[in-house]
Backbone:
């Protein structure tokens, strides 16, 4: 999974660079930031764990390109827009 995530981020990063952009930061937009351990339902907890794994893989791949990454909840971004 990490290798695939790194390839995907690398591909996007190269496309931005070839378009003349120099990304310096990135954000991962998520629906929820709840800790999986706090979820009683095992099925839902597994989805939360998948989300956390996804964020970690993408964050690590972005760090390989020297990009700082933040995680933002989707509903918190609407007022900013």
Residues:
């Amino acid at each position: 999974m990490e290798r695939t995530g790194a390839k995907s981020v690398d591909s996007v990063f190269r496309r931005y660079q070839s378009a003349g952009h120099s990304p310096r930061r990135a954000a991962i937009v998520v629906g929820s930031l709840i800790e999986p351990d706090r979820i009683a339902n095992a099925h839902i907890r597994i989805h939360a764990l998948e989300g956390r794994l996804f964020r970690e893989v993408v964050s690590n791949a972005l760090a390989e390109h020297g990009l700082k990454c933040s995680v933002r909840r989707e509903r918190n971004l609407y007022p900013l827009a």
In short: The radius of gyration is 15 Å.
